[in-house]
Amino acid sequence: DAKTTQPNSMESNEEEPVHLPCNHSTISGTDYIHWYRQLPSQGPEYVIHGLTSNVNNRMASLAIAEDRKSSTLILHRATLRDAAVYYCILRSSGSARQLTFGSGTQLTVLP
Amino acid sequence: DVKVTQSSRYLVKRTGEKVFLECVQDMDHENMFWYRQDPGLGLRLIYFSYDVKMKEKGDIPEGYSVSREKKERFSLILESASTNQTSMYLCASSLKLAGGTDTQYFGPGTRLTVL
After folding, report:
1. B83 CB contacts (<8 Å, ≥6 apart)?
2. Given an 8 Å threshold on Cβ–Cβ distance, is B106 in contact with A44?
3. Is B10 exposed, middle or buried (0-12, 13-18, 19+ CB in 10 A)?
4. Which pLDDT score is estimated for A104?
5. Residue A11, strand partner residues
6. What is the pLDDT of residues A42-98, one digit of tens each?
7. In terms of CA atoms, which chain A residue is nearest residue B97?
8. B1 in helix, strand or coil?
9. How many beta-carbon pairs below 8 A join chains A and B?
10. Closest residue to B106, CB basis, from A43, A98, A102
11. Could you list the pLDDT tens digit for every one of the 115 residues in chain B?
12. pLDDT digits over A9-50, tens only?
């Protein structure tokens, strides 16, 4: 799978939007962009995925740049429960079955 | 919602003991996975199963075996536990979808300590 780059850490205030960036300049045309998060002492949790168009679900929105070399996970109103490590992953049709997490972004939500 | 449950959240065993970690999913998923997660090493796949009685080795299968007799249940077995198997063990499941679109659903994890 192609490589992604994320900031090590970000802070947000509670009830404010959070934009978590991910760079993937070597993305190929068949790579899907997936986001997972891992709360402290929990297993990872699927958040959202997309290919080209922006995506919304009950947890978050995914904004994908037109050239697909970057994407942004948007949490519309951060809560304390959103404090977690967020992982951006690329998965293609030929990718290995397992998920490979990079170091991710540690999101801190301040009350 | 998909639910993946693991038999224990915390487990303490002694070196040489045989250890069973159980995982059950309730969404009729074909694929099931066992990972371990260690600080600085990320997720590493131990074993993968794509159907009942079918399994494939992952990146670090040594010292482990697995069993999948029923679709919903995937067991990880440490034949003779060693201290270097102290870790967080994560089970996951997914539908057999076209590559790139599959999403994995994880259990809460079992933190195993081998003394």
Report:
1. B15, B114, B115
2. yes
3. exposed
4. 92
5. A108
6. 999 999 999 999 999 999 999 999 999 999 999 999 999 999 999 999 988 766 677
7. A93
8. coil
9. 62
10. A43
11. 669 999 999 999 999 999 999 999 998 999 999 999 998 888 899 999 988 989 999 999 999 999 999 999 999 999 999 999 999 999 999 887 666 788 899 999 999 999 9
12. 999 999 999 999 999 999 988 889 999 999 988 999 999 999
A46–B108: do the CB atoms touch at under 8 Å? no
Tracing tokens 């794509």 back to the chain, one arrives at B50
Tell if the CB–CB gap between A98 and B45 is shorter than 8 Å: yes
Distance from CA of A24 to the nearest CA of B (A): 15
Chain A residue numbers touching B104 (CB-CB < 8 A): 44, 46, 99
| A6 Cβ neighbours under 8 A, 6+ residues apart | A20, A21, A22, A23, A86, A87, A88, A102, A103, A104, A105
Chain A residues with at least one Cβ partner in B under 8 Å: 30-32, 34, 41-46, 49, 51, 91-95, 97-103
Q: With left for phi above 0 and alpha for psi between -120 and 50, is residue B31 left, alpha or beta?
A: beta
For residue B69, the model assigns a pLDDT of 95
The predicted pLDDT at position B99 comes to 67
Of A46, A47, A49, residue with least CA distance to A76: A47
Q: Which chain A residues are Cβ-neighbours of B33 within 8 angstroms?
A: 97-98
Residues of B with CB under 8 A from a CB of A: 4, 31, 33, 35, 42-43, 45, 48, 50, 58-59, 90-92, 98-109
Rg, Å, chain B Cα set = 13
